[in-house]
Structures are given as structure tokens and as C-alpha cells.
Amino acid sequence: MYLSKQIKQINILPKYNIVEKKNCILHFGIGNFHRAHQALYVHELLEQNKDLSIIGVNLRSNKTKEKLEKQDYLYSLVEISDDQKKITIINSIKEILFGLTDKNKIKNLISSPEIKLVTLTVTEKGYHFDENKNLLLSDEIINDLKDELVI
Q: Which domains are delineated in the chain?
């Protein structure tokens, strides 16, 4: 069993202060996949003294913002191999916005000259198809088209 082995644990803290970095990436869909990939790559650039940051936008739920906001958008990325457990604290996200409550701020950021990239992640949660690969207009998709909050 993996846990019975002696493994080396490495903890890595960020060397930069995200508050001091420029806003230049606006990312839609700031879920787990994004945080384990694009946000990690941005973190690695920040570790090389690059001047950038991510402002995230979630359209379907405010839960990620509520959770990460409490910890200043810091989170742990854990990589495990046979002999090592590496925990990296990621700080590349400066802020998370929610589409239904932050519409004007999001619109202003999209057209802002400071934003250099607008990126998007769509994972399996964003796809709703039937067995014939026809789009299903689920309640969530219909709600998105109406632009209303469903709780």
C-alpha cells in the first residue's frame, strides 16, 4: 500500500505577492482543472518574476469564489509520486468574480487594455448531450440562457 512507504514531503511557498502583479488574464471557468493546469503555469511564470495575474470568472456557481476568497485565493496543489509528495501553494489568482453579481466589472475587464488574454475552460460539467450526441437543454442551460440565478 502506498501510505505504508516512507516518502519525502516537500512544501513550496510562493516567492511573489500577487497583489503587486498586473491584471492581464481573465479566465472563465476557474474550477479544479484550471487551477491544476493554467493557474499552475502562471504560478511558474510568476516565480520567474513575470508581471501577470489571473482574474477568474465563474458563471454557474459562486462556491469556488466563496471558498477561495476566505484564503486570499491561495490553494495547495499536491503532486504525489512513489517516493515524494510535493505540496505547492499557488497564488496566481488575484480575484474571482461571479457572473451574475459582477456583470459590469466583467464587461469592463473584457474591454480593458490591461487584459491581454481572455481564456476559457469547459470541462465535462459544461456538456449536456443525449445518447445520440444531441444537445440537451437541461434546466441549467435554459437558466444560463435566461441569465437568472437558480438556487
A: 20-123 (3.40.50.720)
